[in-house]
Amino acid sequence: MSTNIVYLSDLRQRPRLYTAFERRRHTSIHWFVELFAEAVSALVGVGSQALYVLGNILKVQGASSILQIGLSYACGILLALGAITITQMLFHGFPPLKGLRYMAAQIFGGYIACLLVYVQYKTLILEAEAALLPAGPGVSALAANAARDVGGRLAALTIWGMPAAGGSYAALAALTNIPATLLACVVYELMLSDSDRVVPAAHLDVINVHKNHRRLGGRPASPASDPNLDGKGHVGEVERV
């Protein structure tokens, strides 16, 4: 029994400018949209975390909270993860050049985010810097994931120069999550993955909806039929749980 396919554009017309850009977004500049998502993922959360740290140093009440930081980073995780990109490259055939672009975009996003935070909270940052100077170089630092740590470290070097490099601690903070994520992937594939699991009908419905996207012309979604779908979690891939 055939099923009528209804596209969103059949129900809601958009201005021509938006429609024209959407077509380009799905074709010639699709790479830009991917990198934008990766960069935005690194932007999210940095401001909340910076304000929380500044609030603790300067004893400012209500500057931020652990809950706010957690929610902010959760939104960022929905968009991208640097270590997951590396894992996909090594174990799931993710294109290496595309992966490198993703990681560069993540680091660049973290770099820009930290510069924006500095501009926004410069007064508080300078007050915190003055308060920390008497404590000397032994003040504890912050460990973040690779994208935010490397991007943030580069931003600190841009603002304060080489004294902000962080020494050996910088490499430890920036790179720890990568081997940890790779190990987690290996453990998952060996001990938890179940390829014989039955795919629920609702999951198949979601996959078929993606396959019928107008850009694909109703053809099965695969890297061969659409080079834009060779990225993380492309719609032709059934998740193994």
UniProtKB/TrEMBL annotation:
Chain ranges passing through the membrane: 31-54, 66-91, 103-121, 169-188
Biased composition (Basic and acidic residues): 229-241
Subcellular locations according to the entry: Membrane
Membrane topology recorded in Swiss-Prot or TrEMBL: Multi-pass membrane protein
Gene3D superfamilies found in the cross-reference section: Glycerol uptake facilitator protein
Chain segments carrying region Disordered: 214-241
Keyword Transmembrane helix: yes
GO CC term (a single one): membrane
Keywords assigned by UniProt, alphabetized: Membrane, Transmembrane, Transmembrane helix
Name of the molecule in the record: Aquaporin-like protein
Organism: Mycena rosella
Classification lineage: Eukaryota, Fungi, Dikarya, Basidiomycota, Agaricomycotina
